[in-house]
Amino acid sequence: MTIPMRPPTDGPGAAALGARRGAPRSRPAGPDPLAPLLDLPGVRDAAEAARTAVDRLLGHKVLRRESAGVSSESALRGARASAALEGVDVPLAQVRTGDVSEPTLQGALRVSVALGSMVETWDRAPGQVLARMHVLAAADLAPADDLGRPSAQAGPRLGGVFALVTGATSAPAVLVAAVVHGELAAVEPFAVGSGVVARAAGRLTGIARGLDPKAVSVPEVGFAELGAPAHAAALAGYRSGTPEGVAGWLVHCARATELGAREGLAICESLLRG
Questions:
Q1: What is the pTM of this model?
Q2: 37: CB partners within 8 A, 6+ apart
Q3: pLDDT digits 0-9 by tens, 202-212
């Protein structure tokens, strides 16, 4: 199985490149490049568990009147967790005060806050959005000339990622998000900031494809709870392209999504208590 996309000449990347941009994304016109993922060991059950957890969150009564507040807190916690996975672990209470000078965390916060403004553009111009994400994430970490500019060797594989974002598939949104995240994390298109960008792109895919349209879950917290070593091991499995490795990554992402939904519920409950 070759889910990790080389210059798209075979496998899902090539099939996705043929998807018509205007086709309904839930009903691909030709062979569905991601549908076989559901048959990998443990993937279907993990995806269903993630969807159920997010649906439970979206049904919380607080969201009828406080969805913006939950989304804002989710963005804050997500950014902190994403930076923690990069080795910058700042207490949430300190992040909430705004007393943060560490550039990786500052970049993660900028990206997280801006995701809402990127939703409408993501499935039409993902390259543009990805460049914007990197500018926000690495503004204080990379030379100005490198901001928003992926490496040349990443270009062909990024084409496959963009085709997945704009293309049609009947695969659950949680799996599409996992593949987008995995591809960007595996190819590391930027010398600095690729991890933060990959997680943000995965989250944005879930928002744009209707998994979490209110942006109230916190998948980054789920990844942080599972731990950086587990994250690295799952990504290594995805990079291998073996069925077992790809399945492991997809299950890992679905589990993080499930835990992130629980974090969203905790935010709702805290607002409910006042």
A1: 0.89
A2: 3, 43, 171, 175, 179, 246, 250
A3: 999 999 999 99
